[in-house]
């Protein structure tokens, strides 16, 4: 079955450490996204990529980095510069056909990062 | 830029009763509107979407939503709630870029 796989599901980090969250999709989607979810704040866009080797900052990119070397993969690194990294992180993908704002997102199951 | 407001943080409804979740958006043109549902600890699943045409749209799991341009609203409804509908519901609006703007979400609790 096609879908998005995020790993790990739970991750614990000590302060000052970088961590990388994995996101892999087999939907043949061109666009991929990373969202951060905090209680009562909905989803906020961190980074998105419309095509391989290209990505753009979202609304809260500071302290995060991404790469898009393959169409299927869009890993997110949470760096030590991110002041409050404890959150639920969601990866999503979509096609890029037609009107851009109309693209339906398919989400992974999420990764919960806790800083100790 | 577009924005979304979900006025109700938490709603409790009895099983079998009707449910309505409110969503108001801010956008200068006709937006693309979505409702997603999230079960605890899971990703989001699309319930329904509105792009154009008939302002009453049907979705999965018996949900429907009505687009009202004059009120800038896209409220979600279900005539009879099941215990499995307990979840968090997000309204989202898309515009001319690849970014969706999500509301803060409404948590639905279903009591027996």
What features would you describe in this structure?
The complex is a heterodimer of chains A (116) and B (112). Chain A is an all-beta fold. Chain A has no helices and eleven strands. Chain A has strands at 4-7, 10-13, 19-25, 31-37, 43-51, 54-57, 64-66, 76-78, 87-94, 106-107, 111-115. In chain A, the strands form two sheets. In chain A, strands 2, 4, 5, 6, 9, 10 and 11 form a seven-stranded mixed sheet that branches. Chain A has a four-stranded antiparallel sheet with strand order 1-3-8-7, with no helix packed on it. In chain B, the strands form three sheets. In chain B, strands 2, 5, 6, 10, 11 and 12 form a six-stranded mixed sheet that branches. In chain B, strands 3-9-8-7 form a four-stranded antiparallel sheet, with no helix packed on it. With 112 residues, chain B is an all-beta fold. The interface between A and B is medium-sized, with 31 and 26 residues.
Please outline what is shown here.
The complex is a heterodimer of chains A (116) and B (112). In chain A, 0% of the residues lie in helices and 48% in strands.
Task: Record keyword descriptors for this entry.
heterodimer, A: 116 residues, mainly beta, seven-stranded mixed sheet, four-stranded antiparallel sheet, 11 strands, 48% strand, globular, B: 112 residues, six-stranded mixed sheet, 12 strands, 0% helix
Shape of chain B: globular
> Which structural category do the helix and sheet elements of chain A fall into?
mainly beta
- Largest beta-sheet details of chain A: 7 strands, mixed
In whole angstroms, the N-to-C terminal distance of chain A is 36 Å
In total, the number of strands of chain A is 11
Q: Say what oligomer this is.
A: heterodimer
């Amino acid at each position: 079955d096609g879908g998005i796989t995020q790993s790990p599901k739970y991750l614990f980090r000590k302060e000052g450490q970088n961590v990388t969250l994995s996101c892999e999709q087999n939907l043949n989607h061109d666009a991929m996204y990373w969202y951060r979810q905090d209680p009562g704040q909905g989803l906020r866009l961190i980074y998105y990529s419309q095509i391989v080797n290209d990505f753009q900052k979202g609304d809260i990119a500071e302290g995060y980095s991404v790469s898009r070397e393959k169409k299927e993969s869009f890993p997110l690194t949470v760096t030590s510069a991110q002041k409050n990294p404890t959150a639920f992180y969601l990866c999503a993908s979509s096609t890029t056909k037609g009107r851009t704002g109309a693209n339906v997102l398919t989400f992974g199951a999420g990764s919960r990062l806790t800083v100790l | 830029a577009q924005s979304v407001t979900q006025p109700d943080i938490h709603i409790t409804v009895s099983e079998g009763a009707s449910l309505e979740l409110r969503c108001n958006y801010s956008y200068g043109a006709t937006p693309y509107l979505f409702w997603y549902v999230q079960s605890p600890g899971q990703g989001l699943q699309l319930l329904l979407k509105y792009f154009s045409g008939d302002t009453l749209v049907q979705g999965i799991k018996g949900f429907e939503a009505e687009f009202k341009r004059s009120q800038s609203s896209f409220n979600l409804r279900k005539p009879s709630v099941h215990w499995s509908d307990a979840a968090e519901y997000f309204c989202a609006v898309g515009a001319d870029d690849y970014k969706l703007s999500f509301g803060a979400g409404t948590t639905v609790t279903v009591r027996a």
